[in-house]
């Protein structure tokens, strides 16, 4: 009987627990084979607002994965399943066809994905197929660290302290999993047809906009590329991460998010590299390294939240009473925000970076999100959805966590009365205006003094010549309105 490795958001060979388990399971008998599967599920992707940039990134990475798997004589089978609910049945059908008795996969923690996997488990049981789901997305799997009361942490700092203590005292959590063992050549004769699957360049409904082809240049595919980035970042930038991360015009962060979100590289591989560079310290030591590790811990925090509070996967705020906030239904304002035409240069630069490159700087994400929620009073879920539909690194836990943090509806969120002033954020995080100049060409000739708020800084006649919109709202007025709405939200 054979084995099947079902790849999902873990498109890598190295440090892949499920893949390793699947391959070592076979080692005991040479007449058994390991097959790999990837399911193209357009309906599911549509319902989860997967961005075309992400699908394009997956397909490019799948091609790389397929090459590396074929060096190990492991065929990568591609199945397209139109209806999400049919995915488990199609996996079972494939198992029957290939005489597979054991399926391995890494767990995805979102509610719909867990439901899909539970359905697979039930169907498999009836067909005498064993299925093993393994924890691979986090270094510390959800449930392993809890508060004194035995509950999921809802505040980041105690979570982080506990996470660091736990990993320090179980340092083998940073040991990488061995590489998988391949199949013997015989599989090529016995199952030649399984090597014939092609990975499409794109699929209907997820076509990459021609204007955003820079996405492919900015984020080349493959595990070696992810490790090259990590290596360069750790060698050259991580030491200054602490100060550089908030400067919008500087590439001070790792830009690894698409690779981490699609599992081209694991969180463990990232943290291990940083830990070693920090002379085997997770906290303290080099301040830049310690800060960067903390960001990966934020990622783990949001995953633990998904598992502990699954209602966040169901379009509900973490703090349930926050569903009572009265939002503005202003389609025109929302459209202007999406297009980067709000008249607030820093907000527009962020949105245009997203639209033009499929990625956005973290500080810009915070500024535009806060602006949508607290200057336009538009429901954060609309922004969350727009981000997912455009981000190459779209990741439900991080995106939902980030949006709820900005909207003050989440676990350990910003208090509602903390409202970014977009102009002072701009002066602080883009002091020379270089980020704005890059993404908002109408303003490229303005001085670093005028660029942050040209409507106020320039004479009206000069402003008109720019061809740049006037601010759609007055920040000071909206701030008061927002405080009022949030203060009076009914519990
Ligand atoms: P680095 O600064 O180099 O950090 C390394 C890694 O740590 C990142 O790749 C990411 O995996 C993780 N990380 C960093 N910051 C955070 C954070 N605040 N929360 C959770 N994990 C973090 N990140 C996504 O991966 N996908 C998303 O869809 C996403 N949506 C966001 C939406 C909003 C409104 C906000 C405020 C943040 C969002 N983030 C998201 C988090 C963060 O903005 C990105 O992870 C980061 O900008 C990616 O750049 P980087 O890889 O250079 O990060």
TrEMBL record:
Keywords: Chromophore, FAD, Flavoprotein. FAD binds at residues 241, 253-257, 292, 295-302, 393-395. The keyword Cell membrane does not apply. Binds 1 FAD per subunit. One of its GO terms (cellular component) is cytoplasm. NCBIfam families: PRK10674.1. Belongs to the DNA photolyase class-1 family. This is 12260_t:CDS:1. It comes from Acaulospora morrowiae.
